[in-house]
């Protein structure tokens, strides 16, 4: 099983999702069953580590994002991954535009797994530290929901 998290820049929300979900997989004993990655629909930050504020907020919850490196979403990702999960509706539109017709991937919003279908993880880039806390809280909830879904094998 392969899961890809997608946001705009791949320096705030989707690397946070990758780090949080990696820990959730470890805690659920599924780390060797599920491969994960993250990327951005945009190319501005390709090659960069996650935003310092995202790294700091995650580290306060015991999650190290420092070795992650931003990359851009590609058409091939829709053949390589089973789940391609966006953070907001703009991400989702860009993802659907790029998705090849023959892709079998589940393409949707990550927060659908938090029991809040259609809800978005808001972009924290231009806001304060509380925005990064909010992102972490939402992503933790969605991670638990996705773990339950993967466990149930649906
Ligand atoms: P992300 O946040 O999509 O969560 O990585 C952003 C990072 C950078 C920009 C926008 C959003 N930017 O415009 O540079």
UniProtKB/TrEMBL annotation:
**Documented EC number(s):** 3.1.3.48
Cytoplasm in keyword set: no
Record-linked InterPro entries: LMW_PTPase, Ptyr_pPase, Ptyr_pPase_sf, Tyr_phospatase_low_mol_wt
Domain of life from the UniProt record = Bacteria
Domain Phosphotyrosine protein phosphatase I, residue spans: 1-149
Keyword Ion transport included in the entry's annotation: no
UniProt keyword annotations, A-Z: Hydrolase, Protein phosphatase
Similarity comment text for this entry: Belongs to the low molecular weight phosphotyrosine protein phosphatase family.
PANTHER family, per database record: LOW MOLECULAR WEIGHT PHOSPHOTYROSINE PROTEIN PHOSPHATASE, LOW MOLECULAR WEIGHT PROTEIN TYROSINE PHOSPHATASE
Q: What is this protein called?
A: protein-tyrosine-phosphatase
Organism of origin is Vreelandella neptunia
